[in-house]
Specification:
Elements (H helix, E strand, L loop, with lengths): L12 E3 H14 L4 H12 L3 E8 L2 E6 L2 E6 L10 H4 L2 E16 L2 E16 L9 E10 L3 E9 L1 E10 L2 E10 L4 H11 L1 E3 L2 E6 L1
Helix pairs in contact: 1-2
């Protein structure tokens, strides 16, 4: 059996019960089918996010183990509009720290934080490659907050918001660096409501 290096294959998501089940299968198969055992263990190593889900009366708690992982930006197209129109390219770097979410009585409570860096981003709607690099920071608290900032680039993005109950209310804006509006005009028309040279982003 040929086993492909786990690091060379796409990452997968796995909750703790799935990881335990695969590990148990791998241990039981070790004596009889060592190749199968190694393959199962490699699958566990490919999961950059380890998530614990604990259902409870009237809600659930989700805890994410501290981790750092990288993803192709193309995975965002699976979120639907507007990502499937933008067709983003680049790299995503996710860092989670003491992140836990709890749903109770119709409200979201969150502790810890998650930082998503979107690096060397480009889109089929613009000839600029790359357009820039950006950071989304999700921070827990009584009212969890979300902030967006530009790290570098010619497409300038900024914004902030917070969860009210189960709804995220976010406002931000996008604009082009001087002398680059023509190259980013189509993109600015898609990601928000145009207000002169700016595009206003509003959610919730």
């Amino acid at each position: 059996m040929t086993i492909v290096n786990a690091a060379a294959r796409p990452p997968i998501h796995m909750i703790d019960t799935e990881a335990d089940a695969l590990a148990d299968l791998g241990m039981r198969a070790h004596a009889r089918q060592s190749d199968v055992s190694r393959l199962l263990m490699a699958e566990i190593e490919r999961a950059p996010l380890h998530i614990t889900v604990a259902p409870r009366w009237g809600g659930a708690t989700v805890a994410v183990a501290d981790s750092q992982s990288q993803w192709p930006a193309s995975v965002l197209t699976g979120l639907g509009t507007p990502w499937n129109t933008l067709q983003p390219q680049g790299r995503l770097a996710l860092h989670t720290q003491a992140l836990a979410l709890e749903w109770a009585a119709g409200r979201l409570q969150m502790t810890g934080q998650a930082q998503l860096d979107m690096l060397a981003m480009s889109s089929r709607l613009s000839t600029l490659r790359p357009m820039g690099s950006y950071r989304l920071l999700l921070a827990g608290g009584a009212a969890p907050t979300l902030t967006l900032q530009t790290l570098e680039g010619l497409l300038l993005l900024s914004g902030s918001g917070q969860w009210v109950g189960q709804r995220l209310r976010f406002t931000g804006e996008a604009s082009a660096a001087p002398d680059h509006e023509a190259q980013l005009s189509n993109l600015l028309n898609i990601i928000g409501r145009r207000a002169g040279p700016r595009s206003v982003i509003s959610l919730g």
